[in-house]
From TrEMBL:
<feature type="modified residue" description="N6-(pyridoxal phosphate)lysine">
    <location>
        <position position="226"/>
    </location>
</feature>
<comment type="function">
    <text>Catalyzes the reversible interconversion of serine and glycine with tetrahydrofolate (THF) serving as the one-carbon carrier. This reaction serves as the major source of one-carbon groups required for the biosynthesis of purines, thymidylate, methionine, and other important biomolecules. Also exhibits THF-independent aldolase activity toward beta-hydroxyamino acids, producing glycine and aldehydes, via a retro-aldol mechanism.</text>
</comment>
<comment type="pathway">
    <text>One-carbon metabolism; tetrahydrofolate interconversion.</text>
</comment>
<dbReference type="InterPro" id="IPR039429">
    <property type="entry name" value="SHMT-like_dom"/>
</dbReference>
<keyword id="KW-0663">Pyridoxal phosphate</keyword>
<keyword id="KW-0554">One-carbon metabolism</keyword>
<dbReference type="InterPro" id="IPR019798">
    <property type="entry name" value="Ser_HO-MeTrfase_PLP_BS"/>
</dbReference>
<dbReference type="InterPro" id="IPR049943">
    <property type="entry name" value="Ser_HO-MeTrfase-like"/>
</dbReference>
<dbReference type="GO" id="GO:0004372">
    <property type="term" value="F:glycine hydroxymethyltransferase activity"/>
</dbReference>
<keyword id="KW-0808">Transferase</keyword>
<comment type="subunit">
    <text>Homodimer.</text>
</comment>
<protein>
    <recommendedName>
        <fullName>Serine hydroxymethyltransferase</fullName>
        <ecNumber>2.1.2.1</ecNumber>
    </recommendedName>
</protein>
<dbReference type="InterPro" id="IPR001085">
    <property type="entry name" value="Ser_HO-MeTrfase"/>
</dbReference>
<dbReference type="InterPro" id="IPR015422">
    <property type="entry name" value="PyrdxlP-dep_Trfase_small"/>
</dbReference>
<feature type="domain" description="Serine hydroxymethyltransferase-like">
    <location>
        <begin position="4"/>
        <end position="386"/>
    </location>
</feature>
<keyword id="KW-0028">Amino-acid biosynthesis</keyword>
<feature type="binding site">
    <location>
        <position position="117"/>
    </location>
    <ligand>
        <name>(6S)-5,6,7,8-tetrahydrofolate</name>
    </ligand>
</feature>
Amino acid sequence: DQRLADFDPEIHAAIRAELRRQQQTLEMIASENFAPVAAMEAQGSVLTNKYAEGYPGRRYYGGCEHVDVIERLAIDRVTELFGAEFANVQPHSGAQANASAMAALLDPGDTILGLDLAHGGHLTHGMRLNFSGRLYDVVAYHVRETDHRVDMDEVERLAVEHRPRLIVAGWSAYPQHLDFAAFRRIADLVGAYLMVDMAHFAGLVATGLHPSPIPHADVITTTTHKTLGGPRGGVILTNRADLAKKLNSAVFPGQQGGPLEHVIAAKAVAFKLAATEEFRDRQQRTLAGARILAGRLLADDVQAAGITVLTGGTQVHLVVVDLRRSDLDGQQAEDRLDAVGITVNRNAVPFDPRPPMVSSGLRIGTAALATRGFGAEQFREVADIIAGALIAAPSENRLGDLRDRVDRLALRFPLYPGM
Ligand code: PLP
């Protein structure tokens, strides 16, 4: 019954250090967020002890009466939140949700059509080394070189030519809305399933601030930890009764064993929060923050340094910074922001001349800072700090001033106070 600090001081110290890092820096990795304390309490509970293979009311283990309540609440809340008929809340992650959804719809060797990883797609949408690239025959669509928007003419052309069994619409690094109705039309034209992976923008969809894929897609997958702001995990949704059972079988026993009921409880907490006015306000500040950031990075002083913003702006929670014409590469830019206390990730941009480990882009998101309470005023300050860091001659003094400004913001918006 020893506490962590006493039994395992090394792990305890590293967790404390990570808490301090999160509190003292500004988190702008677009796929990250801060889970509510209530969700972490659920996740750190005795539910971690429970085996519950199967689904509520149909388990392969005894003693599931309480976890049944929890999983049913999670299902009811997430279907209500997104206006979907069926949900599976068991996927351990977004990748497992996608693996399960594809396993339900496809046979190995079938053709899938997804957005190229280098153009903003996700590993699970057909990358060569991923399960998706190994199990399925992958055809990739792209963004146009002229405006960096998804080329729906190419999607249609590739669909007609390759007759995929599944089209995947979704992204990890793309700052605009996708045209779900156009994807649906193309899927129908060639008799393909349409799967939308809304992992990144699910929080925006939940609050009506992004077009919903639910009416258009056969299957919708998401993570629960990005804009949705919950624990790390995945969910699958569908309106198709004929697919619901197949999807359940694909998750368990297809891809997973026992569900993580402690995580499912935390997901349920996050879905409850996502239905509130407070959460909608947060998503609005997220969007406003991304627009402010894009606007600042499109100003003359930044453009003069060869730095710009892909697609000329954003409609979502992230901005993709294009460094192809800058002396600064993605690695250097990431390091420079890290030095002033802002955490982002470098990202390949479409048609990137630099190798992926260096890259010519940054992906910068505003969801985590909005959770921290940032509004327009603070996002203007952060945007100006980022612009300053990217265009500054790398003098110690200049970066030191910017770090002081970051410290002031971090202090004014305490994260997990009292922890
Ligand atoms: N789908 C998309 C679009 C993503 O961006 C990600 C995460 O980066 C995933 C799926 C995978 O989620 P996870 O990391 O939970 O497996």
